[in-house]
């Protein structure tokens, strides 16, 4: 998961550098007033999203398998805890009935 995140961040940073170069060379328009930094960030995000979607497909699939495995383990742990709690609760009720 960390690898995917770092790869995605790298693509964004690369797009930001390209956008920065285009804006300051005058090829891409500058933002209005003091919004130039925000304009470049938004433009880099819009450009990097489809690139990441296509380029990182295999890495995203690997990350989703890891996340699904974690979720399955958590569900199994919750079910096991629930079973232990139910057993302890049933034992306490049975003991209170006999007392």
Structure, described:
The structure is a single chain. It is built from three helices and no strands. It has helices spanning 2-25, 36-55, 57-98. Helix 1 (2-25) crosses helix 2. It folds into two domains: 1-55, no CATH class; 56-99. It has 99 residues and is mainly alpha-helical.
List keywords for this structure.
single chain; mainly alpha; 2 domains; elongated
Mean pLDDT: 87
SSE pattern: HHH
In which range does the helix fraction lie? over 70%
How many β strands by DSSP?
0
Assembly status: single chain
The rounded distance between the terminal residues' Cα atoms is: 54 Å
The total tally of domains equals 2
Give the number of helices: 3
Strand content: under 5%
Pairing-aware structural class of the strands and helices? mainly alpha
Shape: elongated
Major beta sheet, specifics? none
Radius of gyration: 26 Å
Low-confidence stretches: none
SSE blueprint and pairings:
Layout: H1 2-25, H2 36-55, H3 57-98
Describe what is shown at a glance.
With 99 residues, the protein is mainly α.
């Amino acid at each position: 998961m960390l690898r995917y995140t770092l790869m995605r961040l790298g693509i964004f940073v690369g797009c930001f550098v390209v956008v920065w170069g285009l804006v300051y060379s005058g090829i891409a328009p500058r933002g209005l007033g003091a919004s130039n930094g925000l304009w470049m960030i938004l433009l880099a995000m819009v450009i990097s999203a489809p690139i990441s979607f296509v380029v990182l497909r295999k890495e995203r699939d690997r990350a989703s398998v890891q996340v699904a495995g974690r979720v399955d383990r958590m569900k199994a742990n919750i079910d096991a805890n629930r079973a232990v709690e139910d057993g302890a609760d049933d034992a306490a009720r049975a003991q209170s009935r006999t007392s």
